[in-house]
DNA sequence: TAGCAATTGCTAAGCACTTAGGTATTATGA
DNA sequence: TCATAATACCTAAGTGCTTAGCAATTGCTA
């Protein structure tokens, strides 16, 4: 059952026997698991002519509910990226006719991003497929293990964020 | 205890009550935890004038043991990046005098990358600091929870990779 | 209420990755 | 053995992020 991370730990043990490299067992696997999942999800996105970044924007608009209209700042907060990255994502999506930008009547500085009909059709079609892929991955764990994993990840997240 | 992922799930429930979005609870937190950890580790790397990519190369060379000499192909496999990305990482590190490239006497096509003395000093200094940061993060979990988490992540990794 | 600070959203430039493609060398098998 | 395939490594170009910086508007406060 030795995986890549195990081999790295073994190498460290023989080269630096005095160092406690046990944290790498967790953090190394966290990284690799995240990369493997992301890569698997990308296949599904590609089948719908999307990438992870575009899916993210369209899904955020969809789950905001009718009239599917939010600000770039909200998109940035939600995706944990800069507002500049949002602007560039929106440029791409607007060119494809999947979203539309309009002036925010309540804030002269602001913009409101709306899902177009064709954008909504696309994300409504991609979403069930995406969920099926996610389900196929986490089905490797029992329901109890899933909630266990989610709780542990949340605590790691908090520990990494604090300070 | 409601975090960002909980709020996203709540939004989906009210907008698409028929969809089972429970996989997002795990995969969403996997992503966010990995990003938070990566960001925390980056601070430590920066204190040693390194980034994650450079640290990765130097650490791989160090743990290979004396004479700290491996091929770009091995580096690519280990870091799960293209050999082209390795070439660019090495260009940077070689300019800084942290690694050195030489022809592989056993393979006319090949190159051998060696850790220079100054590269070795740098990584030997950064490594304990890095491990301390990793330890500070995973100390949020008991030892048993840590090995539990590592095992669950390995299974998620395998599930995402297969097929 | 005038002026300064904060916010919003954009483009430009820089960075690290990817894929594409080139060159050189080694391995294969007809 | 010799043509062809595979491998190793690189640069170039494209992509999507970041930070820097700009212009416009709004919010705060003296």
Entry summary:
The structure is a homodimer of 163-residue chains. The first copy, chain A, is 68% helix and 7% strand.
**Biggest β-sheet: strands ordered side by side in the sheet of chain A:** 1-3-2
CATH superfamily label of chain A: Winged helix-like DNA-binding domain superfamily/Winged helix DNA-binding domain
Report the C-alpha radius of gyration of chain A, rounded: 20 Å
What distance separates the N and C termini of chain A? 36 Å
* Topology of chain A as a string of helices (H) and strands (E): HHHEHHEEHH
Report strand % of chain A.
5-15%
Q: What is the number of domains of chain A?
A: 1
CATH topology of chain A: Arc Repressor Mutant, subunit A
Structural class of chain A: mainly alpha
Oligomer class: homodimer
Task: Report mean pLDDT of chain A, rounded to a whole number.
Answer: 95
Q: Could you name the CATH class of chain A? A: Mainly Alpha
Keywords (chains A, B): DNA-binding, Transcription, Transcription regulation
Pfam family, one (chains A, B): MarR_2
InterPro entries (chains A, B): HTH_MarR-typ, WH-like_DNA-bd_sf, WH_DNA-bd_sf
Domain HTH marR-type (chains A, B): 23-158
